[in-house]
Structures
1.
Amino acid sequence: MTNLQFKQVRSRSVYAIIISSILFSCEQSAQQAEAIDEVPVSEIKEDHFVPSTPDNLSWGWFPVDKEPILRIKSSEIVRINTLTHAGAVQNIEPVEYLTNLGVPREEIPNDVLDFWNSREDRTREGRSGHVITGPVYIDGAEPGDMLEIEILEIKTRVPWGVNYTGSTSGVFSEDYPGAREDDEYLDIPREAHLIRTGMSNGREVAFFSDSIQITLAPFMGILAVAPQPVLGEPGVTVPGVQSSRPPGAFGGNLDVKDLTVGTKVYLPVFHPGALFYVGDPHTAQGDGEVSGTAIEQSLSGTFKFVIHKGVGITTPWAETDTHYLIMGIDLDLDRATRKATRAVVDFLVEHKGLTPAKGLSLASIAVDFRVSEVVDLTQVVTGFIPKKIFMD
């Protein structure tokens, strides 16, 4: 979510809240409400649970000196609740704001209200739009180690999400790197779109319209360790404060939709305990997130944390059953592509024993480079290395 969007979200006058396009018949709403109960109960045995209470949340940044909300051992499993910013950070009281969109009062979690009411605390000052749960301290983690986050489960907490659009949002924002003064104006009003979710034909979907259903693929937009903020770097305008808007070497607001159940994410450790943060929950997003938002929907995630001692990495990467995901991050999309390519070559040299020349050759022949996210100041390009090409 861009800073421009965040400012606009905070003012009721700039919204044209369109309800007619998102309301459903009573019969459809009843079917969706009933469908929520059909979501299978988790069979994963967790060691700890972290609720999204105000004390466990930060607003738009990653404090490096916040007292850990939980201390765990390597290889333990933690379920963590997260809150979407939709309804939680605007200046309008959440019940009024969300019911005006069409959310029934009984579907607004109390922790949304608790967080909104806690904003009077000066330490709650928002540095960006995200509501973030953490930090979790992992015993034994030290700078120079690598943190592995295995995503075991992600479940929706409410049967609704919100997507924001506007004539100057996302890639059309006035501060977008590719913007030009003579660009054609996109003539659409600023809108908050309520999107209902539920079960349909055995799958959890977003009911985008009467004729469009989108299969949910929930993931956390933010997976991070506590960073090392450097004044002047992207998102660091105050000493020691890293805004949650731009991702970086610490992970953060990567918005890579493939970081979902079954994926392992690897992040470098910069502080003792790693200090893990998670938030910006999404249930559906296209590569790029071009409007600036996905379906912003509160989720509960279950993660297994493993520390790899002395395994130094400089950029986030991940793996699924089928691919290695190597990320390049930069303010410039071309530079992000260049960095992703270099990181892929380095990975192939270190982990597959190729020469740099052979690594670059393979990158060009077999690796897909996808634009994962382009609307959060720094931009993310991900190289997808298929595992099936390696015969061993």
2.
Amino acid sequence: MAVKRQIPITEQHKRMARYAKAMGHPVRMYVLELLSRQACCYSGDLSEELPIAKSTLSQHLKALKEAGLIQGEIEAPKVKYCLNQTNWEEARQLFDHFLKQGTKVNNRSCDC
């Protein structure tokens, strides 16, 4: 009987996957791009910038917030969003390390 090996999944893998999943939609990437260029943005301004329903935008913002990439502060009647700088930097470092690691190992072309 074959023994199954454990997959060595680390906390870094889990965090990177959480960030990647949240960034896995073009609208979310656009929102992150907008927020990376300014200190903050109100949800109403984002609604005017994006030609999508407010409920759809809300779902995208929720996914980014749950992943920890953005944070929101209620300033009734609006919500002000900005990047979560700590998690944004962590995501940058995780992906940077991951991508550099793959480059070091795989500098040759694949024959497959």
3.
Amino acid sequence: MTSLSIHHSVRKFLKTLPPDLKSKATEQLDALEMFGRLLPPPDSKKVAANLFELRIQGSVQVRLLYGFSGDTVYIVNGFVKKSNKIPPRELRTAHRRFGELA
């Protein structure tokens, strides 16, 4: 079992989600905490050398970007996905925050 560390901006983002998506996000975060690096697609997908996305399906597509350092999962960015590709700005933000935390 891994431990989760959620960036304060991600916590704020999660609070803005509608109740159904908050519930799904909580379920996905629990699964990530339980399975860690073994969480399979489609729930998790590698998006960069050291970053992954946690996929939350609902009325909109929500993504939480995270990375691992030891036994800790750092959730460093969250956004509503509006296209097939992750916006470069969201990846840059995730890389910067992960570098600060890990």
